[in-house]
Design brief:
This protein is an alpha+beta fold.
Length: about 525
C-alpha cells in the first residue's frame, strides 16, 4: 500500500512538472477536486478524444456524433430519475469530521483483500514460471480461495443493502469490517445518509423569475432527448448509435484520487439503439469491441479486468465495468450497460412526444432498447499517464524517468534538436520543423547538452528526438532517436516524415487490438 501511495505521488508530481495537470486556481490555493490541463495535458486529452471518436464514429457507418448543451430543461432530470434517485450513501467520521462515500469505503476494503489474493498469485507465478496454471492455482490454493470468498461476500452484502436501501446495514458492515477513517484511523462513524449529487443553478436575469436548473450530471440524456431529431434527419435505421464527448458535473461527497473522481469531468459516451430482444447480443458485442479498443493502446492486458455489477441501476438488465489497475488499485474505467427502453419511455411519458422507431422489416413501431458504452475521459487520461510513467535502470547504474505514452496519443510526436546554436544548424532544424508541422505536433529544443535534452523529452513523453549535427550539412541526414529503446539511427531528412507517420498511423494502432 505504501508503495502504491509513493507511485501515485510520483504520478501527480510528474504531471505538474511536465505541464500535464495543474490544480485549478492554484494561485488562490486551488479548488478541491477541480483541475486544469496544462499545455501537454491539453494535447494528450485531445488525442485521446480523437482516438475514441475516430474508432467510434468514423469507423462505424451506423454511428453518428452529437454535441448537446450542458443546460437542459429541468423536466429532463425528473424523467431520467436523477431528481429522485441520483444519490450516494454518505457517512461522516465523528472525530476527523471527514465525509466519505460509504460504498467506496467498503469497496476499497474489499479491493485490499483482492490485492492479498493477487500477491499470492504473483508469488506463485514467479515460483513456477512457465509451468504456472493460474486458473488451477486460484481454484485450489486455500489462501486465495479464502480471500476471494471474503471479497465476494462483502460485495454481495453491500449490493443487497444498497438495492434494498438498507443504509443501517451498510453502516453495520463498515463497523463489522473494522473500517477506519483513512485520515485519522478513527472508527467513530455517523449513520449513513443519502446525498443528491446534482449541482443546482438558475436561468434568468431576475431572482424572482429565474428558473431552477441543474448542471447535467451525465451526457447520456442529451442523446436520448435528441433521439428522434438524429434518427429522422440522419435517416438512421436500427441498429444505430449516437456518440458524444462532453462535460458533466457531480457534487461528489469526497472527490479524491487526483483526476479519478472530480466534480467537473468529461465523458465519452455512445448510446446504441437496438430491437427489443436483441439487446443482450449487442451487449456482448460492445463488451468485446471496447475491450479491443483498450487493447490497441498496449497499456498491458494484466491492467484490465471485467467486473459484472452486483447491484444494477434500476433501468439496466445487464451491466459490467472495464476496470483498470490504477496506482491505487483496480477501479472503474468504462461502463457498458444494457439500459433497456427505460430512458426513451420515460421521456415519452414526461414530454408527451413519441420517441419510437418504425421498423419496416417488422412493420411496426417500437421504443428501441439501448446499449451504452461510457468512459471517463479524465480516467482514461490517468490510466494512460500512470501506466506509461516508468523509472528505468540503464547500463552503468544510471536511471532515467520516461513517459512511454502510446505514440499516437503523445502530445508532441517529435522534438527537433540542433546539436549547437550556431554554424547554421538551427536554420536547418527550423526548416525541418516547419515541414513536419503540417502533419504533426512537433517541438524545438536547443537548450542544454543534447543528452539532457534527450532525458527531458523522455520524461515529457515525446516518441522521437531528431538531432541535426555538423554532418547534416554534408550528407543531408539526421539522427533519429526512439524514446522507448533509446536506439539511434542515421536517416535522410526526406525519410523523417514517413518514419513518424508510420509510428502514429491510426489504422496500425487500431488493428493491434484485434
Amino acid at each position: 500500500m505504501a508503495k502504491q501511495q509513493d507511485t501515485f505521488k510520483q504520478v501527480i508530481a510528474h504531471a505538474k512538472e511536465y505541464g500535464y495537470i495543474f490544480s485549478s486556481s492554484e494561485i488562490y490555493d486551488g479548488l478541491s477536486a477541480v483541475y486544469d490541463y496544462g499545455q501537454n495535458g491539453a494535447e494528450l486529452k485531445k488525442n485521446i478524444k480523437e482516438y475514441w471518436w475516430k474508432s467510434m464514429v468514423q469507423l462505424h457507418e451506423n454511428i453518428v456524433g452529437l454535441d448537446a448543451a450542458i443546460l437542459m430543461h429541468p423536466t429532463t432530470w425528473k424523467a431520467s430519475g436523477h431528481v429522485d434517485a441520483f444519490n450516494d450513501p454518505l457517512i461522516d467520521n465523528k472525530d476527523s469530521k471527514k465525509r466519505y462515500r460509504a460504498d467506496v469505503l467498503v469497496e476499497d476494503h474489499a479491493e485490499k483483500i483482492n490485492q492479498k489474493a493477487q500477491k499470492e498469485i504473483t508469488k506463485a507465478r514467479k515460483r513456477f514460471g512457465d509451468k504456472f496454471d493460474e486458473a488451477e492455482f486460484v481454484n485450489t490454493n486455500p489462501r486465495v480461495i479464502r480471500y476471494k470468498k471474503e471479497e465476494k461476500e462483502i460485495l454481495e452484502r453491500l449490493a443487497k443493502s444498497l438495492t434494498e436501501e438498507n443504509l443501517a446495514d451498510v453502516k453495520d458492515l463498515i463497523e463489522e469490517l473494522g473500517i477506519a477513517c483513512p485520515e485519522s484511523g478513527s472508527k467513530n462513524w455517523t449513520d449513513v445518509k443519502q446525498f443528491n449529487l446534482m449541482f443546482g443553478t438558475k436561468l434568468g436575469a431576475s431572482a424572482d423569475s429565474a428558473t431552477d436548473l441543474y448542471l447535467r450530471p451525465e451526457t447520456a440524456q442529451g442523446i436520448f432527448v435528441n433521439f428522434a431529431n438524429v434518427q429522422k434527419t440522419g435517416r438512421m435505421k436500427i441498429p444505430f448509435g449516437i456518440a458524444q464527448i462532453g462535460k458533466a458535473f457531480r457534487n461528489e461527497i469526497v472527490a479524491r484520487q487526483f483526476i479519478f473522481r472530480q466534480r467537473e469531468f468529461e465523458q465519452m459516451e455512445m448510446q446504441f439503439f437496438v430491437r427489443p430482444g436483441d439487446e443482450l447480443k449487442w451487449f456482448e458485442h460492445w463488451k468485446e469491441t471496447r475491450q479491443n479498443w483498450h487493447a490497441s493502446l498496449g497499456l498491458g492486458e494484466e491492467n484490465y479486468r471485467f467486473h459484472d455489477h452486483e447491484k444494477m441501476a434500476h433501468y439496466a438488465n445487464a451491466a459490467t465495468d472495464i476496470e483498470f489497475n490504477f496506482p491505487f488499485g483496480f477501479k472503474e474505467l468504462e461502463g457498458i450497460h444494457s439500459r433497456t427502453d427505460f430512458d426513451l419511455k420515460a421521456h415519452e411519458e414526461h414530454s408527451g412526444k413519441k420517441l419510437q422507431f418504425f421498423d419496416p422489416e417488422m412493420n411496426k413501431n417500437y421504443v428501441p432498447y439501448v446499449i451504452e458504452t461510457s468512459i471517463g475521459l479524465d480516467r482514461m487520461f490517468l490510466a494512460v499517464f500512470s501506466s506509461s510513467l516508468k523509472e528505468e535502470e540503464l547500463e552503468g547504474g544510471s536511471t532515467r524517468t520516461v513517459l512511454k505514452l502510446p505514440a499516437i496519443l503523445a502530445p508532441y510526436k517529435a522534438a527537433i534538436l540542433p546539436l549547437v546554436k550556431k554554424d547554421g544548424l538551427p536554420e536547418i532544424a527550423r526548416e525541418l520543423m516547419e515541414e513536419l508541422q503540417w502533419d504533426f505536433n512537433v517541438s524545438y529544443d536547443e537548450k542544454d547538452a543534447v543528452g539532457r535534452r534527450y532525458r527531458r523529452q523522455d520524461a515529457a513523453g515525446t516518441p522521437f528526438c531528431i538531432t541535426i549535427d555538423h554532418d547534416t550539412k554534408e550528407d543531408n541526414q539526421v539522427t533519429i532517436r526512439h524514446r522507448d529503446t533509446m536506439e539511434q539511427k542515421r536517416v535522410p531528412i526526406s525519410e523523417v516524415k514517413n518514419i513518424i507517420a508510420k509510428e502514429v498511423d491510426f489504422r496500425t494502432w487500431m488493428q493491434k487490438g484485434k
